[in-house]
Amino acid sequence: MKGRIKKEAAIQLDRQDELRKFREEFYVQESQIYLDGNSLGLLSKRAEKATLDLLSSWKNYGIDGWTEGEHPWFTFSEALGEKTAPLIGAAKEEVIVTGSITSNLHQMIASFYKPDKTKNKILADELNFPSDIYAIQSQLELKGYDPASHLKKIPSLNGQTLDLDQIKKSITDDTAMILLPSVLYRSGQLLPIKEIVEYAHTKSVIVGFDLAHSIGAVPHQLHEWGVDFAVWCNYKYMNSGPGGTGGLFVHKKHHGKIPGLKGWFGSQKEKQFDMEHTFSPADDAGAYQIGTPHILSSAPLLGSLSLFEEAGMNGLREKSLKQTDFMLQLIEDYLLPYGFKVVTPLVHSERGGHIALEHPEAASICKALKNQRVIPDFRAPNLIRFAPAPFYTSYEELFDAIHILQEVMEKKLYQLYKNTRNVIA
Q: Which residues carry this modification: N6-(pyridoxal phosphate)lysine (predicted)?
């Protein structure tokens, strides 16, 4: 029988870590173990510099910043889209950095949901993030449909994950569109995107994905898999800052279509300032932009993307899986007596970038951990999420975090706190 993992093993893994140099690129607070990168990634020095550089372009160029300087604002969204594309397996013209995840989702549904008498239902899942459901409900109502009857939800057999056979069974002849998360925000389950798309397309169903919990953590091949559209935020694993500009993907096969929500920044660049009242959409994903680009909210992503270019998604994914494996072993070694249940899939191909633990005292446990300078994430009613970030989380920190959690449970320190969420959980 093998023994428990010792701290020396964590230290040795850090010595062998080929990505350890990137930790110095981030503002990691001393004596704090930050494991909430799947909600908000930490600031990098390059993101800070990029933001200051774009601020300087406003200072130095004024209105001419739209066309002058190292990063002209007029094409900034397209430039960031091109740099993002390799992370998700897309062509550069299939990606644009724009809007927010929810506004982009409204745009995608407005553009691709084309109901008729026989195919008019939208399929989501009962575990989906609320904002995605709100967007679907709104778009159905705008089309004159009752969400109670036209929004179908794939049931979860265990309350935490989705089953591929159940997903396929839910794709019926009246399904017009499917919207699913690539990674379930609660359990961290990674869905089999390729298999879902292949099956849905045999039923002539449009398929879109919310990549909020996978972009920057899991490599994808969206173009090759034939995904119709995808949306995401950039403030989690992409480390672009609170409220950072979102992004969207539209497969080449759909380019040239009129977007559901027209806006002047979706125009062909050479015609945009003709000021005509006839909309001429761009012939790429840029057509789905609505308003003027948020330059200062997009700026941090420029610096962040340079880190991804250096590290490579495959290396980041490899370390992410090693670190979540390491956490799972530590949980088995040290936390089993305290009533925790791992709800994240153990198989690599089914796991995103975080580990989720179920416990009836989850809210109070998270408060106790924060008091001990360990930053987890709580999700109602009873989940604790830990997200090691390959850029800046060390194995030694993971070892220490689990031991601090063991101490919290052993000494019942969580009982000092109410088992209710804070205003922001």
A: 236
Is the residue at 146 inside a domain? yes
CA–CA dist 126, 74 (Å, integer)? 40
Question: Which residues constitute the domain of residue 347?
Answer: 7-30+312-416
CB atoms within 10 A of CB 146: 10
Mean pLDDT of 331-346: 97
d(CA 155, CA 16): 43
Q: How far apart are the C-alpha atoms of 278 and 146, rounded to whole Å?
A: 33
Known binding residues for pyridoxal 5'-phosphate: 101-102, 129-132, 210, 213, 235, 264, 292
Of 221, 198, 212, nearest to 90 by C-alpha is 221
Residue ranges for the binding site? 101-102, 129-132, 210, 213, 235, 264, 292
In terms of domains, do 66 and 13 share one? no
User: Does pTM top 0.70 for this prediction?
Assistant: yes
- Let me know whether 170 and 61 are in one domain: yes
How far is 203 from 187, CA to CA, in rounded Å?
29
pLDDT the model gives residue 141: 98
Q: Report if residue 346 sits inside a domain.
A: yes
The number of domains in the chain is 2
CATH value at residue 212? 3.40.640.10
- How many other C-beta atoms can be found within 10 angstroms of the C-beta atom of residue 182? 25
Structure tokens at 388: 């090691």
Using one digit for the tens of pLDDT, what is the confidence trace for 186-222?
999 999 999 999 999 999 999 999 999 999 999 999 9
Asked if residue 21 is part of any domain, the answer here is yes
Q: What is the pLDDT of residue 2?
A: 63
